[in-house]
Every structure is written in C-alpha cells, then in structure tokens.
Design brief:
Structural class of chain A: mainly beta
Strand content of chain B: over 45%
Number of helices of chain A: 0
Oligomer: heterodimer
Distance between the termini of chain B: 41 Å
Radius of gyration of chain A: 13 Å
Structural class of chain B: mainly beta
Number of strands of chain B: 11
Number of helices of chain B: 0
Shape of chain A: globular
Helix content of chain B: under 10%
C-alpha cells in the first residue's frame, strides 16, 4: 500500500515568487492536512481538507492557500514568497478526522528554500 | 490553548539501555495521543496511537502509556539500538482537527 507522496521533494525559489506543492494521500484517505516545520517553531498546522472542503485553517497569512481535488489529492500554494517561508512542508493523511482518533500518516515532505 | 512539552530536548544513551521519553500536555480533553519518529531530513513516521480510553499501547520494543488526568504520556524504548537514534515527537489533536506537537526529543544511542 503506497504511503503519502509529496512532490517535489526539494525546491529553491526566489523571494516574491510563488510555489505549488503537491500531495497524494494514502488510497482511501479523505482527510489531508498540511504542516510547516521549522527549527525555531517546530510543526505548525496550516490547514486541513476533507472531501474537497477546507475544514480548518491555522494562523498563517492569506499567502498560504490550498485545495483538495475529488480524488483526495491536495495542493498547497504560497504566493509572494518570503525568506521566512523556508521550511519543510509536510502533508499528512488520515481516514477520517485527525482529531477524532484516526491515525495520521505523513509524507516525506517538501523542502522549500527561499533565497 | 493546548500546549505540549517534551523535556529534555536531547538525550544520549549507550546502546542496550532502556529509556523513557516524556510528553506532557495542558488540556486533558483529548481523543488520543500519537507518538512519531522523525529521521533527519525525513517526514514523520507514526509509531503508536493511544486512544483516550486506553492506558497503554505496545509495538515491538516500544510501549506508550497515557495518563489523561495528569496530562502525561511516556514512550518506553526497551534495549535501545543505534538505529533508534532519531527525534521523537508526541502530538495531541484539538477540536479543529489540528494536531499540536511537542518540539521533540532528539535521541542519540551510542554503540
């Protein structure tokens, strides 16, 4: 059974550019969550999607957005990149609500460096 | 607001030692608690999930316990090996599907 797949694994962008990251959840999983991980802040919740609907959003500016498709695949977009957006972006999937007893599985992450 | 604390931030032990990693949380109204492992440059691997109705969960050399009333969980690693070297994180879910993570404990097992 394939795990959570994230692409690309590594990317370098310039300040002001925008980036799109992709996530394919485990087959059958309908919930997809995104997290940002930095050395200083640790893991911070970005948003969660279930059946194409964004159910929850973390405390990030509007430059961070996402969507989920009918096949549960998800993308997140960051516009007008800033140096502080450099981080590991992790996607996670679960069968149901991650807050209600469902195990959550993470992908390998996308390393974003903004220069 | 849920806060999750893991102390110490780093731990170094000789191979073969049994060890306990601690996790504390401030809001005891949780559905479950999950332990993860993260290798350098990698994503998180789920180790154990303990439901709020459970007190322990075991997988191989790993045993996790949960005490909701005291806001604590422990991850016990038996007979540690160099391959256990990694960062271990605990996380608890909130009402909005968000997981709140601790900062993690970086474990180094010396051969």
């Amino acid at each position: 059974k394939a795990g959570v797949t994230q692409t690309p694994r590594y990317l370098i962008k310039t300040r002001g550019q925008q980036v799109t990251l992709s996530c394919s959840p485990i087959s059958g999983h309908r919930s997809v969550s995104w997290y940002q991980q930095t050395p200083g802040q640790g893991l911070q919740f970005l948003f969660e999607y279930f059946s194409e609907t964004q159910r929850n959003k973390g405390n990030f500016p509007g430059r961070f957005s996402g969507r989920q498709f009918s096949n549960s695949r998800s993308e997140m977009n960051v516009s007008t990149l800033e140096l502080g957006d450099s981080a590991l972006y992790l996607c996670a999937s679960s069968l149901g609500d991650p807050g209600r007893g469902n195990t959550i599985y993470f992908g390998e992450g996308s390393w974003l460096t903004v220069v | 607001k849920q806060e999750v604390t893991q102390i110490p931030a780093a731990l170094s032990v000789p191979e073969g030692e049994n060890l306990v990693l601690n996790c504390s949380f401030t809001d005891s109204a949780i559905y479950n608690l999950q332990w993860f492992r993260q290798d350098p440059g990698k994503g998180l691997t789920s180790l154990l999930l303990i439901q709020s109705s459970q007190r322990e969960q075991t997988s191989g050399r790993l045993n996790a316990s949960l005490d909701k009333s005291s806001g604590r969980s422990t991850l016990y690693i038996a007979a540690s090996q160099p391959g256990d070297s990694a960062t271990y994180l605990c996380a608890v879910p909130g009402a909005n599907s968000k997981l709140t993570f601790g900062k993690g404990i970086t474990l180094s097992v010396r051969p």
